[in-house]
Design goal:
Strand content: 15-25%
Helix content: 40-55%
Order of helices and strands: EHEHEHEHEH
Number of strands: 5
Strand order of the largest sheet: 2-1-3-4-5
CATH architecture: 3-Layer(aba) Sandwich
Largest sheet: 5 strands, parallel
Number of domains: 1
Structural class: alpha/beta
Number of helices: 5
CATH topology: Rossmann fold
CATH class: Alpha Beta
Shape: globular
Length: 130
């Protein structure tokens, strides 16, 4: 039996996290939710190796989405995970910075409903796996 793909989701909006969790679980994913970059980093440092990391950029911890992805890559955490910024930060400069810091993709939350985001992530994961 094939193992379920795993997703680490980082966002400070708990309600949104729960909606995304339901959407991903309907597609057969195991989902772990974090409301702070610090907690998510501690899980990754502890050896958690998700297939996908979805993270918000704008959170109460200043600049934490940028700092989060930068730390993940500097510390070589979850090296095989697909790293996707899921945010409403749509400026081109932010998009460019996210990619420079190691994000594989940048999805604008407001442009898609959760099930569409799940489909986009699913397609990216299958493409990455070949």
């Amino acid at each position: 039996m094939e193992q379920k793909p795993t997703v680490l989701m980082l966002d400070d909006e708990r309600f949104l996290l729960e909606i995304y969790k339901i959407s991903f679980e309907k597609r057969g994913y195991d989902v772990v939710l974090y409301g702070s970059a610090w907690d998510a980093l501690n899980a990754l440092r502890g050896g958690y190796e998700p297939d996908v990391i979805l993270f918000d950029v704008t959170m109460p911890e200043s600049d934490s989405g940028f700092q989060f992805i930068e730390t993940v890559n500097e510390e070589r955490l979850a090296r095989h995970a697909l790293k996707i910024a899921l945010t409403n930060e749509g400026r081109e400069a932010a998009h460019k910075r996210l990619l420079e810091l190691g994000a594989d993709a940048h999805i604008i939350k407001a442009e898609f409903i959760p099930s569409e985001i799940v489909e986009k992530v699913n397609a990216m994961l299958h493409k990455k796996r070949g």
